[in-house]
Write the structure tokens for this entry.
Amino acid sequence: MRSLSVEVKLALALTLVALGVTLAGAWLTTAWIERNVEAAAAVSLHRASEAFDAEEHAQLEKLAATLDALLGNPELRAAFVARDRERLLAAATPIFEVMRERNGITHWYFHLPEPDDAVFLRVHLPELHGDHVERATLRRAEETRELGAGKELGKTAFALRAVRPWLEDGKPIGYVELGQEFDQFLRQLKTRTGDDYGLLVQKRFLDERAWASVLGPRQNTWNDRPDVVAIDAGPFTEGLADFDADVEALPDEGRVLGHVERGDRALLRGIVPLRDASARKVGGLLVLHDFTPQHEALEAGALRMYAAFLAVSLAGAAAFLALVHALVFRRLALLRRGLEARAAGRPPPARSVRLRRADELDWIEALFERLAGRGSGSETSGGERNAPAAPPEP
């Protein structure tokens, strides 16, 4: 390094400065990309939450419309009024098969009126009846004599439920309930939006034994987290540990969980609070949104910005070095050759460029010429030039 000229050292220093500016620009660009990703994630999470609410509302309206049609079926009404379970099951089974195939309806109940308030028939599970259920949708239908609808959490899973009273002379003769399993609802939502959805549910609202019996030992994820369990969250299971906050403390607008890259896909992750028909915050809705095109555009833009920072920095360094060379190093080289010529007894080369105003190098040249003139005892004529006066001494 000591053998290098000052000009080369300056060039190396300027190159390092250019690289430093490029790195600083890269850091700023990365921060800008992260802010854009977070903004995109917040927008996507909000849209996913709105799509979820809209799809839930649409599905509940479909359940309510189907209930209205069922309540007008005279065969079902006559069998229920007669409390003839076999007859009611025979009339309801073919209807249920059609509803399950076309509308994704997975549950159909006939409830007795108060004070008995027991399940008279489960069309989807006819061997189980006579028990009592405590659900907000059924309670709302009993209290208001109107539709009770919403998503409700059972012992192991969520379901969309809608209950209507069966009225005669303004008095209920019973209640009819339809339900749709939540995993099917989420599949329909994925088809509509393209997003993946999953659920985190607080364990205190679930039954561990029922959960284990339904899933079996191999798929039982009860012990994966101390506070919540994943339901219908296949795409999220491997990353559940990334969210270690309390779902009870989730803000209403949700929380962005960053983004992940899987193969050639870029995915935004977020979670919004999940409330049941009683407005209890029972868990969180996980959202996985594919933003690969936007991510690729951001990365391409980042590469262009990195290249631009590097090009501008190197160009600036080169321009500065060229200017310094023209103003300083070229003139120093001329001065050196002149001194070498004087030392060898030859006339110095004539100066090809004359500055109108004296600068520091002019003063140095003038000083050396005076010293050289004194040393030789006479003024040279061939290479002599009118030198500017030396700067006054303090």
About this structure: The chain has two domains: 16-296, 299-376.
